[in-house]
Amino acid sequence: MGYQLNSCLKADKCPNRAIDYNKLMGRLESLLKQEDLYGFLKKNIKGKIKPHHKLRITLAGCPNACSQPQIKDIGIIGAVIPEISNEKCIMCGICVEICQEDAVKFFLGKKAPEIDYNLCMKCGKCINQCSSGTIKKREEGFRVLLGGRLGRHPQLAMELKGIYNEDEILKIVKKCMGLFKKNTRVGKRFAEIIHTYRQYFEQENS
After folding, report:
1. Which of 40, 73, 99, 199 stands the most exposed, by the fewest C-beta atoms within 10 Å?
2. Reported pTM
3. CA 188 to CA 34: how far, in whole Å?
4. CA 158, CA 165: separation in Å to the nearest integer?
5. Beta-sheet pairing, 3-7 with 114-115
6. Count of domains observed in the chain
7. Neighbours of 146 (CB within 10 A)
8. Residues of the chain by 3-state class (helix, strand, coil), percent to 5
9. Which of 87, 74, 30, 99 has its CA nearest to residue 194?
10. CB contact at 8 A, 68 and 145
11. Cα dihedral 34, 38, 40, 43 sign
12. Rounded mean pLDDT for each run of 10 residues along the chain, 206 residues in total
């Protein structure tokens, strides 16, 4: 097909999911089919099309990232940003216990927890476990990683700043395919192309 599109468990099956991505998965499939990457590769690749020639996209429902988005051409990870609401905290401490990153903490004299966004992985667990509603959802969407690969010169994908909604994800993927078609020659991998364009993506989607 000229591409590989996969995910971890179905979004409605994973107990750790931060966001449901089933709808996005379908929209991405439609976009990829429209772009006819197979036809493009057939014209530009001599001989058989190999797995590393294809554009690889994967979705993960949470930061556990079972589908390995860090080493794919385009990795998409479900994300939820928490915030402290005006609801009275019952000081149960469950949010502190559930956070694997130590991003939620209580400080002496404070009547509610505080969130360290430098540590927060946007998994949403503290929101789900907060029975008082003190920690609520501020924003949900998807993190985007670009340009991961294995092979002889492996590299982890770079992450764009912020989180993006479904429409923005489709826009980013379409741009990636455009750059891929414009710049790839004789099987040049997407990861070799994309790192030149990091600022382009962040400026366009800021």
Report:
1. 199
2. 0.86
3. 22
4. 19
5. unpaired
6. 2
7. 25
8. 35, 20, 45
9. 74
10. no
11. negative
12. 81 77 92 85 76 85 91 94 95 94 93 95 95 95 93 88 94 88 73 71 57
